[in-house]
Amino acid sequence: MNLIKPLLGALLLASAAAQSAPPAQTPYRWREVAINGGGFVDGIVFQPAVPGLVYARTDMGGAYRRDTATGRWQPLLDWLPLSEVNLMGVESLAVDPRNPDALYLACGTYTNPAVPNGAVLRSKDRGRTFQRTDLPFKLGGNEGGRGNGERLAVDPNDGRILYLASRQDGLWRSTDAAASFKRVDALPDSAWRRNESDGPLPSWGGSDGKASVAFVLFDPSSGTRGQPSRTIYAGISVVGRPSLWRSTDAGASWQPVPGGPAQHRPMRGALASDGRLYIAYASEPGPHRMGNGSVWRLDVASVAWTDITPERPGATRPFGYATVTVDPRHPRRLLASTAGRGGGDELFRSTDGGASWQPLLARAKFDAALAPYVADTHLHWLYDVKINPANPDHALFTTGYGGWETLDLTAADKDQPTHWQVMSGGIEETVALALHSPTKGVPLVTAIGDYSGFVHEDLDKPAAGNPKPPFFGNTHDVTGAEAAPEVIVRIGKPRDGAKNLGYSLDGGKTWREPATVPDAKSSDGAIAVSADGRAWVWTPKGGAPHVSHDRGDSWTAVTGLPAGTRVVADRVNPQRFHAVALFDDQRYASDDGGASFSAAPLALPDGRVSRPAAGGHHASNRGDARGGQDRLYATPGREGDLWLAAHHGLYRAGDGQAFKRLPAVSEIHAFGFGRAAPGSPDPAVYLVGTVSGQYGIFRSTDGAASWQRINDDAHQWGLILQVSGDPKVFGRVYVGTHGRGVQYGDPAR
Question: Mapping DSSP to helix (H, G, I), strand (E, B) and coil, where does residue 31 land?
Answer without folding.
Answer: strand
